[in-house]
Design a protein that fits this description.
alpha+beta, nine-stranded antiparallel beta sheet, Cyclophilin, elongated, 20 strands, single chain
């Protein structure tokens, strides 16, 4: 072990594990873990010791169940030619079970043991891609994914052989232990109204491109909310879910997402208070959808197809279409039944751009 690694190793041992995180750099993207030191102190200590010593560097996620679990941490997986040994290494490191009442929900990181040998845990672990409540109370949960669950889900979809071993290698390049950083300010929370107005949103759809200009002077919090969610990718791979000819087309329902929501965006998916203003609901206007409660807007928005005075002063206008109104009309003309599109109308991506 070189001097730098030794210092990192010593520092990690001295720090309170509840203040630490593990950053997993994988060939599929970055995953960040935080620990459960109160529930599984010995497992947490062992993982931090191994990671600080570089034990996991160069291993791979060798086994997975699509949208179920992914497994890694086997030192045998460092050798791409030793697939026959994958899943057999890294056990029996002196760890006894530390069973807790933590529910095995999405993102829970769990110590792997050999069948029928509860004291065999070591370096291997699995991550719950989705809730796996049937495992609760049977294995040791020692950490959780706090960023990158969508990366874990992507890894879980790796093609496998008949033994559920990955056909394509997913490298775990490194695991870095460090202090949990202070939370950054929410995106688009510090800009002035003038600075917010310099942004626009470009929507790439199955029917073409739509460009949206925003109105922070009329609805600043809605504009911040919309830019924030867009910049974090929350609207990517969603779809228009409502076509009301002559009235509106509507998007932003996260139930239409083809992939799990970005974990970094979850805390920003919150209701937003109405900012009713004097902008009229005319063709091309963007307004926030909501339920019966005036302050129940969440993520869904609609584009108006024609004059709708009944909506004025009732829904919050925060933007307008400045390019691609022909695309909006094309979507509005698609076949629908009871305002539901008969075929999926994809929104491939929405991106924040500076106004030209």
């Amino acid at each position: 072990m070189n001097i730098l690694l030794a210092l990192l190793f010593l520092s990690a041992r001295q720090d309170d594990p509840s203040t630490l995180q593990a950053v997993l750099d994988t060939s599929a993207g970055q995953i960040v873990l935080e620990f459960y030191p109160n529930e599984a102190p010995n497992h947490v200590k062992k993982f931090i010791e191994l990671a600080s010593a570089g034990f996991y560097n160069g291993t791979s996620f060798h086994s997975m169940v699509p949208h179920g679990v992914v497994q890694g941490g086997d030192p045998e997986s460092k050798d791409p030619k030793a697939k026959a040994k994958y899943g057999t290494g890294g056990f029996n490191m002196g760890l006894k079970p530390e069973i807790s009442k933590l529910p095995f929900t999405q993102g829970t990181v769990v110590a792997t043991t050999l069948p029928g040998e509860p004291n065999s845990a070591g370096s291997e672990f699995f991550i719950c891609v989705t809730d796996q409540l049937q495992f609760t109370g049977q294995f040791t949960a020692f950490a959780r994914v706090v960023e990158g669950i969508e990366i874990v889900d992507k890894i879980s979809a790796t093609p496998t052989d008949e033994n559920q071993f990955a056909r394509d290698r997913i490298d775990l390049r490194s695991v870095t232990i460090g202090k949990i950083p202070p939370p950054p300010p929410p995106p688009f929370s510090t800009e002035t109204i003038e600075e917010l107005a310099q942004n626009r949103v470009v929507m790439e759809t199955a029917q073409g491109r739509i460009v949206i200009e925003l109105m922070p002077d009329k609805a600043p919090n809605h504009v911040r909310h919309f830019l924030r969610l867009t910049s974090l990718g929350i609207y990517d791979k969603t779809a228009f879910h409502r076509i009301a000819p002559g009235f509106v087309i509507q998007a932003g329902d996260l139930n239409t997402r083809k992939e799990p929501r970005p974990q970094s965006a979850e805390k920003y998916i919150v209701n937003i208070k109405a900012e009713l203003n004097d902008i009229k609901h005319k063709a091309g206007i963007l307004s926030m959808a909501r339920g019966d409660a005036i302050d129940s807007a969440l993520t869904s928005f609609f584009i108006v197809l024609g004059d709708q005075p009944a909506l004025d002063g009732t829904y919050t206008v925060f933007g307008r279409v400045v390019e691609g109104m022909d695309v909006v009309e094309k979507i509005a003309a698609l076949p629908q039944e009871n305002e539901r599109p008969k075929e999926r109308v994809d929104i491939y991506a929405m991106k924040v751009e500076r106004r030209k």
